[in-house]
Amino acid sequence: MREIEVGLSKRASAAYDFDQIALVPSRRTRDPENVSINWKIDAFDFSHPIIAAPADSVVSPQSAQQLSLLGGLAVLNLEGLWTRYADPSDAFNQIASATSENLSKVLQQVYRAPIQSELIVARIKELRAAGVVTAASLSPKLTQQYWQQVVKAGVDLFVIRGATVSAEHVSSESNPLNLKTLIYDLEVPVIVGGCATYQAALHLMRAGAAGVLVGFGGGSSGTTTSVLGVKVPMATAVADVAAARRDYLDESGGRYVQVIADGGVHQTGDIAKAIACGADAVMVGSMLARAQEAPGAGIHWAVEAGHPTLPRAGAITTSAIGSFAEILHGPANSAAGLLNATGALRRSMATCGYSDIKELQRVEIIVSQ
Protein backbone atom coordinates (compact mmCIF):
# COMPACT_ATOMS: atom_id res chain seq x y z
CA MET A 1 0.00 0.00 0.00
CA ARG A 2 1.31 3.43 -0.95
CA GLU A 3 2.42 5.52 1.98
CA ILE A 4 2.49 9.30 2.23
CA GLU A 5 4.36 11.53 4.63
CA VAL A 6 2.14 13.35 7.10
CA GLY A 7 5.08 15.03 8.83
CA LEU A 8 8.65 14.32 9.75
CA SER A 9 7.66 11.76 12.38
CA LYS A 10 4.59 10.14 10.83
CA ARG A 11 3.74 8.24 7.67
CA ALA A 12 0.26 7.21 6.62
CA SER A 13 -1.29 4.77 4.17
CA ALA A 14 -3.34 6.06 1.26
CA ALA A 15 -6.90 4.74 1.40
CA TYR A 16 -10.08 5.25 -0.64
CA ASP A 17 -13.84 5.45 -0.20
CA PHE A 18 -16.37 4.13 -2.70
CA ASP A 19 -16.95 7.60 -4.15
CA GLN A 20 -13.26 7.80 -5.06
CA ILE A 21 -13.19 4.71 -7.26
CA ALA A 22 -14.94 3.55 -10.44
CA LEU A 23 -15.33 0.29 -12.37
CA VAL A 24 -13.69 -0.22 -15.75
CA PRO A 25 -15.69 -2.12 -18.42
CA SER A 26 -13.98 -5.11 -20.05
CA ARG A 27 -13.93 -5.97 -23.75
CA ARG A 28 -17.19 -7.94 -23.36
CA THR A 29 -20.71 -6.75 -22.49
CA ARG A 30 -23.83 -8.75 -21.66
CA ASP A 31 -27.58 -8.39 -21.54
CA PRO A 32 -28.70 -7.59 -17.95
CA GLU A 33 -31.14 -10.51 -18.21
CA ASN A 34 -28.16 -12.87 -18.53
CA VAL A 35 -26.64 -11.75 -15.23
CA SER A 36 -27.10 -13.52 -11.86
CA ILE A 37 -27.04 -11.49 -8.65
CA ASN A 38 -27.89 -14.42 -6.37
CA TRP A 39 -26.11 -14.57 -3.03
CA LYS A 40 -25.67 -17.55 -0.72
CA ILE A 41 -24.40 -17.85 2.83
CA ASP A 42 -24.20 -21.26 4.46
CA ALA A 43 -27.39 -23.10 3.48
CA PHE A 44 -29.40 -19.97 2.71
CA ASP A 45 -29.96 -18.63 -0.80
CA PHE A 46 -31.11 -15.11 -1.64
CA SER A 47 -32.04 -13.59 -4.97
CA HIS A 48 -29.88 -10.51 -4.33
CA PRO A 49 -26.98 -9.50 -2.04
CA ILE A 50 -28.61 -6.52 -0.29
CA ILE A 51 -29.04 -7.02 3.47
CA ALA A 52 -31.25 -4.71 5.55
CA ALA A 53 -29.18 -3.44 8.47
CA PRO A 54 -30.34 -4.02 12.06
CA ALA A 55 -31.64 -0.46 12.53
CA ASP A 56 -34.99 0.13 14.20
CA SER A 57 -35.79 2.73 11.56
CA VAL A 58 -35.56 0.03 8.86
CA VAL A 59 -36.22 -3.45 10.27
CA SER A 60 -39.25 -4.39 12.33
CA PRO A 61 -40.75 -7.87 12.53
CA GLN A 62 -43.22 -6.76 9.84
CA SER A 63 -40.72 -5.08 7.48
CA ALA A 64 -38.34 -8.03 7.87
CA GLN A 65 -41.04 -10.23 6.41
CA GLN A 66 -41.65 -7.78 3.55
CA LEU A 67 -37.96 -7.53 2.71
CA SER A 68 -37.57 -11.30 2.85
CA LEU A 69 -40.44 -11.77 0.41
CA LEU A 70 -38.57 -9.39 -1.92
CA GLY A 71 -35.68 -11.86 -2.05
CA GLY A 72 -33.28 -10.46 0.50
CA LEU A 73 -32.20 -10.79 4.11
CA ALA A 74 -33.30 -8.45 6.92
CA VAL A 75 -31.58 -8.42 10.33
CA LEU A 76 -33.62 -7.53 13.41
CA ASN A 77 -31.85 -5.60 16.16
CA LEU A 78 -32.40 -7.51 19.42
CA GLU A 79 -31.26 -4.49 21.43
CA GLY A 80 -33.75 -2.19 19.77
CA LEU A 81 -37.19 -0.89 20.57
CA TRP A 82 -38.84 -4.18 19.55
CA THR A 83 -37.25 -6.01 22.49
CA ARG A 84 -37.62 -3.17 24.99
CA TYR A 85 -41.35 -2.59 24.51
CA ALA A 86 -44.17 -5.03 23.83
CA ASP A 87 -45.67 -2.23 21.73
CA PRO A 88 -43.04 0.36 20.73
CA SER A 89 -45.53 2.66 18.97
CA ASP A 90 -45.25 5.38 21.61
CA ALA A 91 -41.44 5.32 21.45
CA PHE A 92 -41.56 5.71 17.66
CA ASN A 93 -44.04 8.57 18.03
CA GLN A 94 -41.74 10.34 20.47
CA ILE A 95 -38.88 10.08 17.98
CA ALA A 96 -41.05 11.28 15.11
CA SER A 97 -42.25 14.33 17.06
CA ALA A 98 -38.82 15.32 18.45
CA THR A 99 -37.14 18.48 17.26
CA SER A 100 -33.68 18.37 15.72
CA GLU A 101 -32.33 20.02 18.89
CA ASN A 102 -33.61 17.35 21.31
CA LEU A 103 -33.67 14.26 19.07
CA SER A 104 -30.52 12.75 20.59
CA LYS A 105 -31.96 13.15 24.10
CA VAL A 106 -35.23 11.54 23.02
CA LEU A 107 -33.36 8.60 21.51
CA GLN A 108 -31.36 8.14 24.72
CA GLN A 109 -34.57 8.30 26.72
CA VAL A 110 -36.53 5.68 24.74
CA TYR A 111 -33.53 3.32 24.72
CA ARG A 112 -33.22 3.48 28.51
CA ALA A 113 -36.00 0.93 28.82
CA PRO A 114 -34.46 -2.45 29.66
CA ILE A 115 -34.24 -5.28 27.15
CA GLN A 116 -36.77 -8.01 27.96
CA SER A 117 -35.51 -11.52 27.30
CA GLU A 118 -39.06 -12.79 26.74
CA LEU A 119 -39.46 -10.25 23.91
CA ILE A 120 -36.24 -11.48 22.29
CA VAL A 121 -37.75 -14.95 22.14
CA ALA A 122 -41.14 -13.64 21.00
CA ARG A 123 -39.71 -11.57 18.12
CA ILE A 124 -37.61 -14.44 16.79
CA LYS A 125 -40.55 -16.82 16.99
CA GLU A 126 -42.71 -14.25 15.18
CA LEU A 127 -40.27 -14.22 12.27
CA ARG A 128 -39.98 -18.00 12.22
CA ALA A 129 -43.75 -18.34 12.15
CA ALA A 130 -43.80 -16.15 9.05
CA GLY A 131 -41.59 -18.68 7.28
CA VAL A 132 -38.71 -16.32 6.44
CA VAL A 133 -34.99 -16.67 7.10
CA THR A 134 -34.66 -15.37 10.64
CA ALA A 135 -31.63 -13.17 11.25
CA ALA A 136 -31.04 -11.16 14.41
CA SER A 137 -28.19 -9.16 15.90
CA LEU A 138 -26.67 -8.41 19.28
CA SER A 139 -23.63 -6.42 20.30
CA PRO A 140 -20.63 -8.39 21.61
CA LYS A 141 -21.34 -7.13 25.13
CA LEU A 142 -24.87 -8.56 25.23
CA THR A 143 -24.21 -11.68 23.16
CA GLN A 144 -22.76 -13.40 26.18
CA GLN A 145 -25.93 -12.65 28.14
CA TYR A 146 -28.59 -13.57 25.61
CA TRP A 147 -27.15 -15.95 23.00
CA GLN A 148 -28.73 -19.05 24.50
CA GLN A 149 -32.23 -17.53 24.34
CA VAL A 150 -31.59 -16.41 20.76
CA VAL A 151 -30.51 -19.85 19.58
CA LYS A 152 -33.23 -21.72 21.47
CA ALA A 153 -35.85 -19.42 19.95
CA GLY A 154 -34.77 -20.64 16.52
CA VAL A 155 -32.65 -17.96 14.87
CA ASP A 156 -31.27 -19.01 11.47
CA LEU A 157 -28.42 -16.49 11.20
CA PHE A 158 -26.87 -14.84 14.26
CA VAL A 159 -25.18 -11.46 13.74
CA ILE A 160 -22.71 -10.16 16.33
CA ARG A 161 -22.35 -6.52 15.32
CA GLY A 162 -20.57 -3.60 16.92
CA ALA A 163 -18.64 -0.51 15.91
CA THR A 164 -15.44 -2.57 16.12
CA VAL A 165 -15.40 -6.28 16.98
CA SER A 166 -12.18 -8.17 17.61
CA ALA A 167 -11.36 -11.74 18.47
CA GLU A 168 -9.09 -10.48 21.27
CA HIS A 169 -11.02 -8.04 23.47
CA VAL A 170 -9.25 -7.09 26.70
CA SER A 171 -11.23 -6.19 29.83
CA SER A 172 -10.26 -5.80 33.48
CA GLU A 173 -13.88 -5.59 34.69
CA SER A 174 -15.51 -8.67 33.16
CA ASN A 175 -14.84 -11.89 31.32
CA PRO A 176 -14.72 -10.82 27.67
CA LEU A 177 -16.64 -12.66 24.99
CA ASN A 178 -14.55 -15.51 23.59
CA LEU A 179 -15.69 -15.51 19.98
CA LYS A 180 -13.91 -18.69 19.01
CA THR A 181 -15.47 -20.70 21.83
CA LEU A 182 -18.90 -19.18 21.32
CA ILE A 183 -19.05 -19.63 17.54
CA TYR A 184 -18.02 -23.25 17.73
CA ASP A 185 -20.59 -23.88 20.47
CA LEU A 186 -23.40 -22.45 18.37
CA GLU A 187 -25.33 -24.56 15.88
CA VAL A 188 -26.11 -21.65 13.54
CA PRO A 189 -23.88 -19.63 11.20
CA VAL A 190 -22.53 -16.43 12.72
CA ILE A 191 -21.78 -13.13 10.98
CA VAL A 192 -19.37 -10.92 12.93
CA GLY A 193 -18.22 -7.32 12.58
CA GLY A 194 -17.32 -4.61 12.14
CA CYS A 195 -13.71 -4.71 11.26
CA ALA A 196 -11.63 -2.85 8.72
CA THR A 197 -8.16 -4.41 8.56
CA TYR A 198 -6.60 -7.54 7.15
CA GLN A 199 -5.37 -8.84 10.51
CA ALA A 200 -8.60 -8.21 12.41
CA ALA A 201 -10.61 -9.94 9.70
CA LEU A 202 -8.26 -12.91 9.61
CA HIS A 203 -8.69 -13.38 13.37
CA LEU A 204 -12.50 -13.33 13.03
CA MET A 205 -12.33 -15.87 10.21
CA ARG A 206 -10.12 -18.13 12.30
CA ALA A 207 -12.68 -17.83 15.11
CA GLY A 208 -15.20 -19.52 12.83
CA ALA A 209 -17.26 -16.65 11.43
CA ALA A 210 -19.38 -17.53 8.40
CA GLY A 211 -19.35 -13.88 7.38
CA VAL A 212 -17.40 -10.76 8.32
CA LEU A 213 -18.91 -7.27 8.37
CA VAL A 214 -16.58 -4.58 7.06
CA GLY A 215 -17.21 -1.18 8.59
CA PHE A 216 -17.77 0.56 11.90
CA GLY A 217 -21.57 0.55 12.17
CA GLY A 218 -23.80 3.57 12.05
CA GLY A 219 -23.54 4.07 8.30
CA SER A 220 -24.66 7.44 6.99
CA SER A 221 -25.97 8.46 10.42
CA GLY A 222 -22.75 7.49 12.18
CA THR A 223 -20.49 10.05 13.83
CA THR A 224 -17.72 7.67 14.91
CA THR A 225 -15.10 9.73 13.09
CA SER A 226 -16.20 12.95 14.81
CA VAL A 227 -16.56 11.38 18.27
CA LEU A 228 -13.66 8.90 18.31
CA GLY A 229 -11.48 9.97 15.38
CA VAL A 230 -11.72 6.43 13.97
CA LYS A 231 -12.27 5.70 10.27
CA VAL A 232 -11.01 3.50 7.47
CA PRO A 233 -12.30 4.37 3.98
CA MET A 234 -14.57 1.57 2.80
CA ALA A 235 -13.09 0.70 -0.61
CA THR A 236 -9.70 0.06 0.97
CA ALA A 237 -11.20 -1.72 3.99
CA VAL A 238 -13.24 -4.13 1.84
CA ALA A 239 -10.23 -4.88 -0.38
CA ASP A 240 -8.06 -5.58 2.68
CA VAL A 241 -10.64 -7.91 4.24
CA ALA A 242 -11.09 -9.66 0.88
CA ALA A 243 -7.34 -10.31 0.90
CA ALA A 244 -7.71 -11.90 4.33
CA ARG A 245 -10.50 -14.12 2.96
CA ARG A 246 -8.26 -15.22 0.09
CA ASP A 247 -5.41 -16.14 2.43
CA TYR A 248 -7.73 -17.83 4.92
CA LEU A 249 -9.23 -19.88 2.10
CA ASP A 250 -5.77 -21.34 1.46
CA GLU A 251 -4.93 -21.64 5.15
CA SER A 252 -8.15 -23.48 6.01
CA GLY A 253 -8.11 -25.79 3.02
CA GLY A 254 -11.09 -24.28 1.26
CA ARG A 255 -13.35 -22.63 3.86
CA TYR A 256 -14.91 -19.56 2.22
CA VAL A 257 -15.97 -16.68 4.48
CA GLN A 258 -18.48 -14.13 3.20
CA VAL A 259 -17.31 -10.50 3.16
CA ILE A 260 -20.15 -8.01 3.73
CA ALA A 261 -19.67 -4.26 3.27
CA ASP A 262 -21.46 -2.60 6.20
CA GLY A 263 -21.35 1.15 5.56
CA GLY A 264 -20.57 3.60 2.81
CA VAL A 265 -23.31 2.27 0.51
CA HIS A 266 -25.47 5.33 -0.10
CA GLN A 267 -26.42 4.97 -3.77
CA THR A 268 -27.03 2.04 -6.08
CA GLY A 269 -23.64 2.39 -7.75
CA ASP A 270 -21.92 1.85 -4.40
CA ILE A 271 -23.23 -1.73 -4.34
CA ALA A 272 -21.30 -2.62 -7.51
CA LYS A 273 -18.22 -0.79 -6.20
CA ALA A 274 -18.31 -2.73 -2.92
CA ILE A 275 -18.51 -6.03 -4.80
CA ALA A 276 -15.73 -4.91 -7.16
CA CYS A 277 -13.50 -4.40 -4.11
CA GLY A 278 -14.22 -7.96 -2.94
CA ALA A 279 -17.52 -7.93 -1.05
CA ASP A 280 -20.03 -10.73 -1.49
CA ALA A 281 -22.94 -8.67 -0.16
CA VAL A 282 -23.74 -5.24 1.27
CA MET A 283 -25.60 -4.20 4.41
CA VAL A 284 -27.64 -1.01 3.95
CA GLY A 285 -29.72 1.20 6.20
CA SER A 286 -30.33 4.71 4.87
CA MET A 287 -31.20 3.46 1.39
CA LEU A 288 -34.09 1.37 2.76
CA ALA A 289 -35.05 3.96 5.40
CA ARG A 290 -36.49 5.99 2.50
CA ALA A 291 -39.20 3.40 1.92
CA GLN A 292 -42.82 4.27 2.58
CA GLU A 293 -43.13 1.19 4.82
CA ALA A 294 -39.97 1.89 6.86
CA PRO A 295 -40.71 1.91 10.62
CA GLY A 296 -38.74 5.16 11.11
CA ALA A 297 -41.35 7.11 9.12
CA GLY A 298 -38.86 9.55 7.62
CA ILE A 299 -36.17 9.43 10.32
CA HIS A 300 -33.18 7.10 10.19
CA TRP A 301 -30.85 6.29 13.06
CA ALA A 302 -28.44 3.56 14.05
CA VAL A 303 -28.36 1.71 17.36
CA GLU A 304 -25.32 3.78 18.43
CA ALA A 305 -27.57 6.86 18.54
CA GLY A 306 -29.24 5.66 21.73
CA HIS A 307 -26.06 5.06 23.75
CA PRO A 308 -26.66 6.44 27.27
CA THR A 309 -23.30 8.18 27.72
CA LEU A 310 -21.56 8.49 24.34
CA PRO A 311 -23.80 8.47 21.25
CA ARG A 312 -21.81 7.78 18.08
CA ALA A 313 -24.60 8.31 15.60
CA GLY A 314 -27.14 10.98 14.98
CA ALA A 315 -30.47 10.77 13.26
CA ILE A 316 -31.03 11.88 9.70
CA THR A 317 -34.30 13.04 8.24
CA THR A 318 -35.31 11.37 5.00
CA SER A 319 -38.31 11.53 2.72
CA ALA A 320 -40.18 8.58 1.27
CA ILE A 321 -39.18 7.97 -2.33
CA GLY A 322 -40.99 4.70 -2.95
CA SER A 323 -41.82 1.30 -1.55
CA PHE A 324 -39.33 -1.36 -0.49
CA ALA A 325 -40.13 -3.10 -3.77
CA GLU A 326 -39.33 0.03 -5.81
CA ILE A 327 -36.10 0.74 -3.94
CA LEU A 328 -34.92 -2.82 -4.47
CA HIS A 329 -36.45 -3.80 -7.80
CA GLY A 330 -37.76 -0.62 -9.41
CA PRO A 331 -38.86 0.84 -11.60
CA ALA A 332 -36.83 3.98 -10.93
CA ASN A 333 -38.42 7.34 -11.73
CA SER A 334 -35.28 9.41 -11.17
CA ALA A 335 -31.58 9.20 -11.99
CA ALA A 336 -30.40 9.82 -8.41
CA GLY A 337 -29.24 6.24 -7.81
CA LEU A 338 -31.73 5.62 -5.00
CA LEU A 339 -34.22 3.26 -6.68
CA ASN A 340 -34.04 -0.12 -8.44
CA ALA A 341 -30.87 -1.22 -6.66
CA THR A 342 -30.94 -4.75 -8.10
CA GLY A 343 -31.55 -3.42 -11.61
CA ALA A 344 -28.60 -1.06 -11.26
CA LEU A 345 -26.37 -3.90 -10.08
CA ARG A 346 -27.43 -6.08 -13.01
CA ARG A 347 -26.78 -3.25 -15.46
CA SER A 348 -23.37 -2.52 -13.95
CA MET A 349 -22.34 -6.17 -14.16
CA ALA A 350 -23.64 -6.43 -17.74
CA THR A 351 -21.83 -3.25 -18.78
CA CYS A 352 -18.57 -4.57 -17.37
CA GLY A 353 -19.11 -8.00 -18.93
CA TYR A 354 -19.51 -10.19 -15.82
CA SER A 355 -22.18 -12.80 -15.24
CA ASP A 356 -22.24 -13.19 -11.44
CA ILE A 357 -21.01 -11.63 -8.21
CA LYS A 358 -17.85 -13.74 -7.97
CA GLU A 359 -16.84 -12.65 -11.47
CA LEU A 360 -17.50 -8.97 -10.71
CA GLN A 361 -14.97 -9.18 -7.88
CA ARG A 362 -12.31 -9.47 -10.59
CA VAL A 363 -13.27 -6.26 -12.41
CA GLU A 364 -10.63 -3.60 -12.91
CA ILE A 365 -11.12 -0.46 -10.85
CA ILE A 366 -9.54 2.97 -11.07
CA VAL A 367 -9.13 5.80 -8.59
CA SER A 368 -11.27 8.64 -9.91
CA GLN A 369 -11.12 11.23 -7.12
What do these coordinates show?
With 369 residues, this protein is of the alpha/beta class. The protein has helices at residues 61-69, 89-97, 103-110, 117-129, 140-153, 179-185, 198-206, 224-228, 234-251, 268-276, 286-289, 324-329, 341-352, 357-360, and strands at 3-7, 10-13, 21-24, 39-41, 44-46, 50-52, 73-77, 135-138, 157-161, 190-195, 211-214, 258-262, 281-284, 299-301, 315-317, 364-367. It has an eight-stranded parallel beta barrel, surrounded by five helices. The longest helix is centred in the middle third of the chain and has 18 residues, at 234-251. The protein starts with a strand and ends with a strand. The model has no long low-confidence stretch (mean pLDDT 90).
Task: Give a concise summary.
Helix 7 packs across helix 9 and helix 10 packs across helix 13.
How many helical elements?
Answer: 14
Largest sheet, described in full? 8 strands, parallel, barrel
Give the oligomer, counting copies of the same chain as homo and different chains as hetero. single chain
Distance between the termini: 17 Å
Relative strand content? 15-25%
Number of domains: 1
The appropriate CATH architecture is Alpha-Beta Barrel
CATH class: Alpha Beta
Q: Superfamily at the CATH H level?
A: Aldolase class I
- Which outline best applies? globular
The largest sheet has its strands arranged as 6-7-8-9-10-11-12-13
User: Uncertain segments of ≥5 residues (pLDDT<50)?
Assistant: none
Count of β-strands: 16
Pattern of helices and strands: EEEEEEHEHHHEHEHEHEHHEHEHEEHHHE
Return the structural class. Answer: alpha/beta
The helix fraction, in percent, is 25-40%
